[in-house]
Amino acid sequence: MNCELLEAMLVPEGYAIEQAHSGAEALASVERRRPDMVLLDVNMPVMDGFEVACRLRDDERTRAVPVVMVTALGDLDHRVRGLESGADDYLTKPVSRAELLARVQSSLRLSWLRAQVDERRKLELVLGDVSDGIVIVDANARVVDASPSAQRFLTMEDAPSMLDTVWAELRGVPADLGDAVARGVRHDFIVRRETPALFVRVSMRPVHDPNGNPTGAVLSLRDVTQESVDFRLQQDVLSLISHKFRTPLTVVHSWTGVLLEDGCEPLQPQQREALRAVAAATQQLRDMLDGILGYV
Predict the structure, then answer these.
(1) Which CATH number belongs to the domain containing residue 75 in this structure?
(2) Is the peptide bond before 94 cis (omega within 30 degrees of 0)?
(3) Is residue 147 part of a domain?
(4) Is this structure's pTM higher than 0.85?
(5) Distance CA 296, CA 276 (A)
(6) pLDDT tier at 246 (50, 70, 90 boundaries)?
(7) β-strand pairing of 38-41 with 67-71
(8) DSSP class of residue 35?
């Protein structure tokens, strides 16, 4: 295989090339660099291309790397043997530039699809074990995936067609959520379904492509029903404390002031001193109560 000729065809198209001149060198290069694909000549010293392809497929680390055979051997038997060895495609010399580019693009697309399938499987395993609900939307705020927890939160069937019902299930979602996704900004809000027993905190985090452009968002859904109930109970208790304590203190403080300033009869010095002590202690209790309620 004329490596210089192939390099001259591919480099102008933006591809980075690393040459290997033997089967062993090719295996070492693939293990070291983990390339996006391998162009493999059948005729190589010591170890031919068929064996190299077999070894690449036998190694878990390189099994998914697409392999394209490039050789002058154009008979059917060699083509079949190459495919059986694990090659994804087969090119016969002389190779035209247009055909080479088409096969390379096709193999890279296949590699990308394989990676997507693998990532999808990993994502499903991870999301299946996460208690928080996860909803993934694209740049147009369309739902593309939802974890089992999210589906349970939103009463969704375990079917892709039901993913579109997420927005309908979320009460109180801002009308400009789609714009927020497009701008790539983070947004947090609380939503409540028709049943008042479930409150969900939704946190939206944007997803960007390598160029920094927003491509969608990940919504994290967490059941905060108990937190909401606890908070409401806390507010009720604070309101009760404020009423039960503040009201009598206010009465005592007010009447003490009246007696000190507008008493009907002149007060004895000891009486006036006692009332001032009561007023000071009452004010101190009011200040302490305000501090406690403000801290909580």
Answers:
(1) 3.40.50.2300
(2) yes
(3) yes
(4) no
(5) 30
(6) confident
(7) parallel
(8) -
